[in-house]
Amino acid sequence: MAAAQAALQQGVKVALFDEQSNPGGQIYRNVDSSPLAEVSLLGHDYVFGQQQVLAFRHSRLDYFAGASVWYLDKSGSLGVIYQGRHQEVKAAQIIIASGAQERPMPFPGWHKPGVMTAGAGQILLKSAALVPRQAPVLVGSGPLLLLLAWQYLRTGVGVQAIVDTTPKVNRWRALRHLPPALAASDTLFKGLQLVMAIKRARVPWYRQATDLRAEGGERVEGLKFKSKGTAHQLDTGLVMLHQGVMPALHMAAAAGCETQWNGPQQCWQPRLDKWGESSQPGIFIAGDGAGIGGARAAALSGRLAGLRVAHRLGLIEQAQCDRLARPHFNARQRHLAIRPFLDAFYRVGMNALNPVDETLVCRCEEVTATEIRALVSLGCSGPNQAKAFVRCGMGPCQGRFCASTVENIFAGQRAVSVGEIGRFSARPPLKPVTLGQLATSEGE
Amino acid sequence: MFRLIDNTDPELVEIEFDGTTVAVPAGISLAAVIFYLDAMPARKTILSGSPRAPFCMMGACFECLLEIDGIENQRACQVEVKAGMKVTRQLTVSGGEAT
Fold first, then answer.
1. Which of A1, A186, A336, B76 could form a disulfide with B31 if both were Cys (CB 3.0 to 4.6 A apart)?
2. Which tens digits make up the pLDDT trace of B30-80?
3. Alpha helices, DSSP H, located in A278-434
4. Does A366 sit within 8 Å of B50, measured CB to CB?
5. Is the pTM of this model over 0.80?
6. Which CATH architecture does the domain made up of B12-89 adopt?
7. Closest chain B residue to A119 measured between Cα atoms?
């Protein structure tokens, strides 16, 4: 939204293709069309999105809701499925804002009905006003998990337990990043308030959790785990997982944009200049899809990309572009000050990244960790060859939920960083397309 | 499994779910409908009949596949419920029993 508006303001003709049916992405999902009687229940950071969406709705651009981009190539051609038909669109400059996805958190039984992401819980809350009938068990690590716990407490749902997988050592490692993070003391304070609210509600909080196992037949019935070495078992029909977020890179990678490994954040991100332009000239990436920085930094990177696009199209001079951009660069830097602290504090431990043998690594093609490890031992060269041998990553999710696990297994067995292992290659179609949709296509 | 939050009184729509007429909140995705109806499992995989249900709710995981108005393998989380829809869970491998 921010990118579109920044470009519009400089006279760029903008079309926005949104896979969702309302603006706002994931963070501000349904913020201006909420089914909730009291939107404030979800917290101030969510309500903040209302202004953004309102401003966006009043902008003069071509907004295509429910439009699925299924290919994007470096020449600026996009294939879009809109209202059941394929359309080809050509653009002089492209800004991709595909956001983030949750880091997959595989362990035995994670595929059972009743196990879902914390993000899924938030989506049900924001877009359908649905909450769990029984207080769920929240498992993992990271601010989103605590936010959801707080929202469930506020809405009278309760939380059965938090099974916190944050490694103990993180506390000390994060400490040296605290001084610069104090620049974002209001965010730190907000986090502290969440933690205190959860503690006041006396939610059982199991720390340093490992050895997770979801049990049950046709649906999850219980969760086993260890906390500080002691074994525990909880009866539950609803388990919500979260282990941080990572850029949703699929579209950028398929368009040929180069990626780089971000060690501190333990994820791949696109290689970009300070404006967000990728290794493919004319393709920009903005928001959390460019690198995890949070909602405020995301919007600022959108503004920067929008300005740069206007400059590229000859609508503003370099000097004016720099002048307009300066406050956004500064603000972005301020919002990013807290990241090193958060990234260190919530760093995912090695045991969580390397699931035990029987774990289903690829949910779509039902490939276990055992099979992937066997391939590494056989001398399989990397994730792409593993994909060819056992089909992990070839199912409908296209590796979105198994790529990071496969990379981590290779990296773990070879004792190198994931950056040296590489990642699944990505190719169109990025989303499902039927022959019928292609047959009724129109060009543009 | 999931219920409407207190103080919400949405309009309801009638759909056919696995052959039975049910009333569900208007304007929600079919994946949300699955949780509202507690229709578990939502799907059984074609490879092994492994029971599954929506996982990410944002169109990325492809676990929420449903047959909607005769068309199979649609992501339920990307489709808004509409009155009169005919929704069927995919619980058997085509051609017979789940293995």
1. B76
2. 999 999 999 999 999 999 999 999 999 999 999 999 999 999 999 999 999
3. 295-312, 318-336, 339-345, 350-353, 369-377, 383-390, 403-414, 418-421
4. yes
5. yes
6. Roll (3.10)
7. B56
